[in-house]
Amino acid sequence: MWRNSPRGWGLLAIVLHWGSAVAIVGLFALGWWMTGLDYYSEWYHLAPWWHRGIGVLVMLMILGRIAWRLAQPTPAAHGSRLERQAASWGHLALYVLMLAVLISGYLISTADGKGIEVLGMFTLPAVISDLPEQASRAGVVHWYSAVVLLILSAGHALAAFKHHYVDRQDTLRRMLDPRLSQQGRHAAESKGR
Predict the structure, then answer these.
(1) Mean pLDDT score of the chain, rounded to an integer?
(2) CA–CA separation, 69 vs 16, rounded Å?
(3) How far is CA 84 from CA 5, 71, 111, 161, 191, in A?
(4) Could you give the domains of the chain?
(5) Are 77 and 35 in contact (CB under 8 A)?
(6) pTM for the structure as a whole
């Protein structure tokens, strides 16, 4: 149930998918909201603290998600050859954008040479700092990558709904029900006997 099969996604892939989706949308909303705070707001320092800390945890989750995806079989995509290629390129773009947003956020936060305190649990050290205009250049990458990531994520969701409601395929169900990966695994084991 934890592992993927050619038929469906396992529980760990499903949890990482939805967890990172919710966290990234939440971080975008928090980031947008906190840019409008004035210096005298009680959230002026607290909101960025939460944003940075959760961002580091999401980065760890995304790195785990990538490692899990590389180690596990990927269920076969539905649709025409063109749709399958678009899905493949779209997924790659989503991962690249997630990493761009998270790495640029790290570069913004560590530009002054200080590490990032992660919700009082640990401090992520500043490995790269003092680059020319590091915070402002990383800020531009952070903002535009986040916007494109949300737009591409919306397209990803629309494609899943199209496969589910129009094409009547189980694309969306596979990302919601880990039991489908077990059915695929049992079918593959039965064929091997």
Answers:
(1) 91
(2) 10
(3) 18, 21, 40, 15, 26
(4) 11-183 (1.20.950)
(5) no
(6) 0.87
